[in-house]
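Box 4.2: Ligand-aware structure prediction
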Amino acid sequence: MTQLQAALNYFNAHQSEFMQRYLSFLRIPSVSTDANRRTDMSQACDFLAAYLNRLGINEVRRFETPLHPILYAWHPSRITNAPTLLVYGHYDVQPADPLDEWSSDPFEPVQHGEYLYARGAADMKGGIMAILSALESALAGGDLGVNIKLLFEGEEEIGSPSLEDFIRENTELLACDMILNPDAIMMGETMPTLVYGLRGLLYFELRVDGPKADLHSGVFGGNVANPAHVLAELIAKLHHPDGSVAVPGFYDNVLHLSEDDRRQINAPGAIDETLLNNSGVAQLFGEPEFTALERMGARPTLDVNGLYSGFIGEGAKTIIPAYAKAKISCRLVPYQDPDEVFDKIQSYLEGLLPPHARMALSKIGTGLPYLAQDAPGAQNLVQAFEDTWKKPAVLKREGGSAPVTTLMQQKLGVKTLLTGFILPDSAVHSPNERQHLPTWSRGTQALIRFFLSF
Ligand SMILES: [Zn+2]
């Protein structure tokens, strides 16, 4: 019996134990943003440490940070000069609110048909349990032939504030040849996906100020400019009618798509129907000369994420608001620079601002776009997918951002294999989050093959 066969047999023979552990992990309400959940966060970290210790992992270390602990583990191969694989995961989850939209308790997992429902079932306690179940099974087959390092943080859902310092202070500890992060959404049940491109992010707040305080609209209306109107006018000028961004120079450094790029991006086939179904809108809207897949992964965007001004309570209050605020974000693509884009937006808006209003832009966060077509280990992973699903793997450019991925590349100089076993309809970050269990199982088997492929 080959080592791979032994490992796959082990996985099949221990399905129910793996599932029980997955359920126990989901029952820990590790909501990183909630100050009342610090004990649960600590417990989730210790749960993983205990699991790894039980596996006989060579070294398991918990690092305290100003916020939530980071778990690091290391298990060397007996083979000298074996390559080193760093596997990343996050054990924190999004808050479960709004609770009344859940059909069951978000922290008491329930199975309906092929789906497991719980907060974190998909993002990414499912991914972490796939990693650990695969690691346990692979180790049951013998030496892996690859040095494994594990890095589990508890702050991904709040922007990983402690991770950057941790990586900077531990570059030696984290040194590796490849990084695997199974926290992405796959294209579909039969489309194992390797994400090779990610969009960057620029997040800022736009504030327009008018009078020094909210004014009586009967006394001042007609004589004082309303900051809510000014903000609306500014926002309206950020786009052309066709949906493209109107800020001069916004597209300057956008990587041009070659015919080859377009063929690869569009290989999975049109996704318009899926987007319509998943979003519930009547019609898709975006730059007309690009397909939905191109607009999702290879074109930059600018979106208002929130608007606030004046009176929004029940009933009526006749005022001219003192100020109006908008939260705005841009998804960026190679080779746009978030800071440069911010400056362009700022000078464009300053030029549009009427003299009767004041304006302030404040940057909230940035992340660089990312492209990693030929990351080390990519071939092994693609092969593991094809052996498991018996289908060609999909290489995809993702519409979202994964600051962790760019952080690792900057600090460790290693590109990440970003993948995942989360189906598009998994309600990630939403009520009734769910994981498709057959896909989780296939994903775990693919990871077993990947771990044993070196
Ligand atoms: Zn995640």
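In the box above, the bound molecule is zinc ion. The chain has a mean pLDDT of 95.
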